[in-house]
Amino acid sequence: MTSQDIEDIERATVVAVSPQAQEEIAGWLLPFDTGAVWRAKSAVPLSHGEPQPGMIDVIESRYAARGMPAVLRLPDIAAFASFRAALTERGYAPAKPTHVQAAMAPDVRAVSAAPLAQTAPSPDEAWASVFVGEGFDPVEGASRVATLSRAPGALFASIREGEATVAAGMAGFSHGWASVHGMRTAQHCRGRGLAARVLATLADAALARGLDRMVLQVEVGNATALALYQRAGFSTAWSYSYWKKR
Questions:
Q1: Are residues 230 and 120 in the same domain?
Q2: Which end of the chain is more exposed for a tag (fewer CB within 10 A), N or C?
Q3: Whole domain around residue 72: which residue ranges?
Q4: Which of 97, 118, 147 is the last residue of a domain?
């Protein structure tokens, strides 16, 4: 990953999760959102160079001005060791370790030879229903749907059986990347390759838009998703954790 790739991925991510407001200060993006999606409300650096410790005060003050606690999304790399130590002294702790993974769109397209999922430029109730179904937190799911629905120029993919949506996903297209979000499969339909079909559909859409690189974020402990993404050609570019006060 080049420095420009890192910046472009972070910008594309924030576009896709579409926070209610955002600021950019001294090489950091500060998204603000009242929903449950952490990526939409956590400060993130646009480079992986060693950050200035004074940015902690700046970030805290900007979130406090909006009546929100500061949350920081930090790469787990050596350059941030002192910054993380300073946060620890202030009572912050890491949570939800996550991998940022990238792949070439032709490889992702090849992960499934089954028919493509249906797509739409905006989500409908059927697409959203999979996020609040059995096995998912309905509050978090509804918040995620609301957040992703605001993304400009996004594409929403779904597989439906009868009137029910059994798998869904979404991609945003900006800053040279197709950014994948919201991958969900109904609990009773897992193991049938539906998520692979959704992923292949989003890759097909990326290629149609002239984008050959894809990125997604997956929690470290999600073994099933990690296995699928590995088959699709994704590999970890870096990992991060969310830092917030205990």
A1: yes
A2: C
A3: 3-97
A4: 97
Distance CA 187, CA 180 (A): 20
Q: Which residue has the tokens 């992923």?
A: 199
Q: Are 114 and 147 spatial neighbours (Cβ–Cβ below 8 Å)?
A: no
Helices within 25-182 (DSSP H only):
55-65, 81-89, 105-109, 125-129, 138-149
Number of domains in the chain: 2
Residues 87 and 127 occupy one common structural domain: no
Same domain, 223 and 117: yes
The pLDDT tens digits of the residues spanning 84-113 come to: 999 999 999 999 999 999 999 999 999 999
Residue 220 lies in a domain: yes
Q: Please tell me the distance from the alpha carbon of residue 244 to that of residue 246, in angstroms, as a whole number.
A: 6
Q: How far apart are CA 118 and CA 137, in angstroms?
A: 25
Is this prediction's pTM over 0.85?
yes
